[in-house]
Amino acid sequence: MRHGRALAIAGAVLGLVYALVAVGGMLLLSPRVPYADPWRFYAHLLATPWPGNVLTVDNGHPEVLPNLLRLFELQVLGGGQWLQILVGLSLLAGCCLLWVRAAPGDGERYEPSARTGWWLCGALMLLWFGNGRTLAHANESVHAYLVMACLFGGVLLVARPGAARLVLALALGLVATLSFGTGAAVFGALLITLCLRGARGQELLAWLGATALALACYFALPRTGGDMPALAIEPGWQASVLLRWLAAPYLYAMGPFADAALQDKLPALARSVSAPFAQLSLRWFGDARQAVWPELGLGLAGMLGLGVLSLRAWRRPCAWPRQELLALATSWFAVGCGLLVAIARASYFRQYPTQIYSSRYLVWSSLFWGGLLAAIVLRLATRGNRRTAWALPLLAGLFLLPSTCWMVLPARHAQAIADRDALGVINGVLDRDTDHGENVLDEMVAARPVLAQRHTAVFASRPARLLGTRAPAQAMALPVRDIQLARVDNAFPWPGADVRFAYAAAASPPLLLVDRSGEVVGLAMPADSTGTWLGSARGTAGSLSGLRVMAPW
Questions:
Q1: Residues 6 or more apart whose Cβ sits within 8 Å of residue 263
Q2: Cα 536 vs. chain centroid, distance in angstroms?
Q3: What pLDDT is stored for residue 274 in this prediction?
């Protein structure tokens, strides 16, 4: 009893750490400006007439409900990202609540430890910050956790018979399909659940009709964001891609211990500890971002385990409770997502093999291992193996804990790039030779006039509207030091320069960059807490000589 209580406390503390990092990352590290795809989304949403701007498939993804949310935020709230951040957080909380409510109850056949083990599996699956690419990116979190909420809700509904429950579950499948490309895999998870509980033929026919309707809606929507390449079916190679894709969380969990390319980014102590393991991995498996092993073996082992558990459940329909059906369906949903990705992105992966392990997919592949671990925990608890049922999720949580911390760093890096590029879009100066992360130069250039005309997103603030006008009469010149101008290869069709200066006194950003004629030609923001400011300005070296820095109000 004493050991059980200690394990329960350890699990609760571990789950709380994961929750704090995930929620803190969403609130503090999510960019407050467009980053990556939203530049393209926003230009389309504002430039295309209603309802064609919302009812569209972009790069293979239908995002009807997310598009409605984005459009509302752009037109009503100034496109500041906060609505999407809070909705994404609410949807994540809803997913956690659905998982918690599905936990084994006191009257069920499991050991008492199974409930806490179930909760911890959910925390690892949903709150691990290896998924920072989704958690700390408002645009991603909305569609990802909306699809997950539909998955959990739909599976829990069809886990028990009933016509009304089936209709509602199929409606959730339709919502998921029209919310993101991987949402169609929810119908696969519902089919698995129906088969494992021994559904009748009428229920399967209803599922078939709803799936056909969802696919018809998907293919009826117009396409934007580039044409999808012709689908190629290469079973052997795509099976390898699927297995490696499923095992991608391993690479991010191991981090510098598996990826030698990360060694240069580590402090000396961490490098000395992890370098031998990284070099051993490099010698055995090659470049971690393109390696086939050990990910292929891990993915194959996971699929075999899922297959064995699913076969046992199928042989005894109606005998497995809804918790185990949810766990198995969650894993099969991830397999369905991976299958869709492996087929739809085949040519892309041929051209860019490192993208198989891209962090944008981790939110889906994590579900595979979370569902599988939860199913194993419940099976162990059924047989009375209380300590093992507890030890597995606890050890998994401890194993993933370091990566939960170090994956904060790329999220912070992405936020810094997003802020810098947003300032560049406002100023109309983007250096082609600078790292722009996942931002695409052509998409930022195309979005600028659309956003500027409607005074939304990065152009919603008063200082941004001063670009190209005379400085306000109340603007005050500041005694800055060491103004440095550096000409850039500007992505916009006019000359521009990066601006750096020092100003240690307190000032509310942004500051105005004003040329000799009194025209505002750029804005500047603080680069750090040491008094260094960075900005950019439109103009040549001659026109920017004598550049002044002014506080706008």
A1: 256, 271, 274, 275, 278
A2: 30
A3: 73
Compute the distance between CA of residue 42 and CA of residue 53 in angstroms, rounded to an integer.
Answer: 10
* Confidence bin at 228 (pLDDT 50/70/90): low
8 Å CB contact between 428 and 538: yes
What integer pLDDT is reported at residue 319 of this predicted model? 62
Residue 456, both tokens: 């939304």
- Looking at residue 415, its pLDDT comes to 94
Which percentage of the chain shows pLDDT scores above 70?
Answer: 94
Q: Tell me which DSSP letter residue 162 carries.
A: -
Task: Output the DSSP codes for 35-63.
Answer: -STHHHHHHHHHHSPTTTTTS-EETTEE-
Half-sphere exposure of 83 (CA within 13 A, CB side): 16
Calculate ∠ Cα 295-299-300, nearest 5°: 115
Give the model's pLDDT for residue 303.
95
Other CB atoms within a 10 A radius of the CB of residue 5 amount to 9
Q: How many other CB atoms sit within 10 Å of the CB of residue 473?
A: 5
Residue 269 CA to residue 523 CA, distance in Å, equals: 40
Between 33-37, 279-283, 419-423, the lowest mean confidence (pLDDT) is in 279-283
Separation between Cα atoms, residue 506 and residue 420, nearest integer Å: 21
φ, ψ of residue 218 to 5 degrees: the values are: -60, -50
CA distance 197 to 319: 8
Give the residue among 507, 516, 521, 517 at the shortest CA–CA distance from 551. 507
- For tokens 């992360």, the residue is 437
The model's pLDDT over 75-130, given as tens digits with 9 standing for 90+, comes to 999 988 999 999 999 999 999 999 999 887 655 566 666 788 888 999 999 999 99
Helix (H, G, I), strand (E, B) or coil at 84: helix
Pairing of the two strands 57-58 and 223-224 = parallel
Give 530-543 pLDDT, tens digit per residue: 889 999 999 987 88
Distance CA 6, CA 21 (A): 23
In this structure, what token pair is assigned to residue 219? 């293919």
pLDDT on residue 4: 60
Q: With contact defined as beta carbons under 8 Å apart, do 488 and 498 qualify?
A: yes
Nearest to 178 by CA among 216, 205, 225, 152: 216
Cα–Cα distance, 198 to 218 (Å, whole number): 29
Counting beta carbons within 10 angstroms of the beta carbon of residue 43, is it exposed (0 to 12), middle (13 to 18) or buried (19 or more)? buried
**Residue 505 carries which DSSP code?**
S
Locus of tokens 């695409």: 440
Can you point out the beta strands (E) in 169-317? 223-224
Is-cis flag, bond preceding 51, omega within 30? Answer: yes
CB 234 within 8 A of CB 194: no
Yes or no: say if 183 and 154 are a contact pair by the CB < 8 Å rule. Answer: no
Q: Contact, 357 vs 339, CB < 8 A?
A: no
**Gap between the Cα atoms of 177 and 171, Å rounded:** 10
Q: Would you state the structure tokens that stand for residue 372, as one six-digit string?
A: 């599988």
Residue 270 class from Cβ within 10 Å (0-12 exposed, 13-18 middle, 19+ buried)?
middle
